[in-house]
Amino acid sequence: MRPIYVLLALLLLVVVAGSSYAAQPVRIAVTDLTYEEQVRDQFRVIVSQTQRQRQGSYNVTQDVSGTQTYINRGELHKFAADIKGELIKLGYSLVQGRPVKSKEQEQLFDILARIKQGVYQGASHVLFGVVNSVEFRQEANPVDQSAHPTWAHGLSLELVAEFSLIDTKSRAVTASFSAMGEGSDTRLVNNPQAVVVPSRGKVVAATSATLGQDVARKLQEQLALELER
Question: Which domain holds residue 223?
């Protein structure tokens, strides 16, 4: 075969291989939001024992109280659905990872270990989210101070989380950002003494929806910049 044909054949193989690589779909597994919080509990322990001696027996009672602190780790399962929905709208293929088992709780923050164990089989990337802040606020404020005053009773939620998009083969972080979700529900009443219960479900749903939109927007921005390089 002439050298020119060999060169053309090699160039064709490179083009075909590059096109095949570029055509590989991005298949994302979205984790539930991981959180860690410090919990402080009050405790009191009363222990009663009977002491026996030659002269007889008597009871000894010990009363011990104090504060114990421990770390509580877990996952929020209510906020991943809207993130997945927004990514599907953008055209991404999603992969469902298996739930984290109770014996794997210590590895909640070790996403690389979970990838290595095959928790996200079939995924080219894992979107891993960690809660930074979650805050409920409940307020009652006057709206109208006329002859018929009106009060607004509101419940709001603000959730902030950090996200990393990790390549399951290279373990490289291909995107990293913070996203926020917000939701609120307000009820108006004429009696300031009235018992008003805003909808917690409505607040959580709105927070989840806005979080999903913020995640999708920022992820799309970073992946677009990555493709332009």
Answer: 24-36+73-228
Q: Answer whether residue 182 is part of any domain.
A: yes
Positions of the chain with pLDDT under 70: 1-24, 37-73, 102-104, 145-147, 192, 225-229
6-38 tens-digit pLDDT: 444 444 444 444 443 344 578 999 999 988 764
Q: Is 213 exposed, middle or buried (0-12, 13-18, 19+ CB in 10 A)?
A: middle
132, 160 in Cβ contact below 8 A?
yes
| CATH value at residue 136 | 3.30.160.150
For residue 148, being part of any structural domain is answered with yes
Q: What is the pTM of this model?
A: 0.72
pLDDT value for 66: 57
Kindly state whether residue 10 falls inside one of the protein's structural domains.
no
Q: Which tokens hold the place of 150?
A: 């009106």
73, 108 contact by CB (below 8 A): yes
In a domain, 62, yes or no: no
- Answer whether 73's CB lies under 8 Å from 36's CB: yes
What is the chain's Cα-based Rg? 28
169 close to 126: Cβ distance less than 8 angstroms: no
Distance CA 165, CA 148 (A): 54
Domain count, the chain: 1
Determine the pLDDT at residue 176: 95
Which string of DSSP letters, residue by residue, matches 112-140? HHHHHTTTTTT-SEEEEEEEEEEEEEEEE
